[in-house]
Amino acid sequence: MDRNEQIQKAKLAEQAERYDDMASSMKAVTECGGELSSEERTSSVYKNVVGARRSKITKEYKEKVESELQSICETVLALLGKFLIPSSTSTESQVFYLKMKGDYYRYLAEVASGEARTKTIEDSQQAYQEAFDIR
């Protein structure tokens, strides 16, 4: 393909939001040699290609961290429910562990959605209320 055909191909790819194809065409245009026009120089093709990858990295990293957070919270809640709360004998430790339970459910709620979020918020409120009701 000649330079003009590659430019047209790049423009079509841009309209279709196929930025990888657009980048490939503009790379071919650049490799043809010669000076790029103002429109060709200001093309945001690689910015779009890189931006999409950056967004993907951000999303994947967020999902990874949320998964780690959920795992940690579930571990703490299991320890609280199976060992710490049942074995606490003083009012102070009971209140402390119930507040802690409410906190960890709240942390889970921050990354949950839909019905899971609603349920987690309710569990958090219940733990806080139990701690508050101890006199």
UniProtKB/TrEMBL annotation:
Top-level taxon of origin: Eukaryota
SUPFAM superfamilies, sorted: 14-3-3 protein
Ranges in a coiled coil: none
Keywords: Monooxygenase, Oxidoreductase
MF annotations from Gene Ontology: monooxygenase activity
Boundaries of every 14-3-3 domain copy: 3-134
PANTHER family given in the database record: 14-3-3 PROTEIN (PTHR18860)
Protein family membership: Belongs to the 14-3-3 family.
Protein name in UniProt: Putative tyrosine 3-monooxygenase tryptophan 5-monooxygenase activation theta polypeptide
Organism this protein belongs to: Hymenochirus curtipes (western dwarf clawed frog)
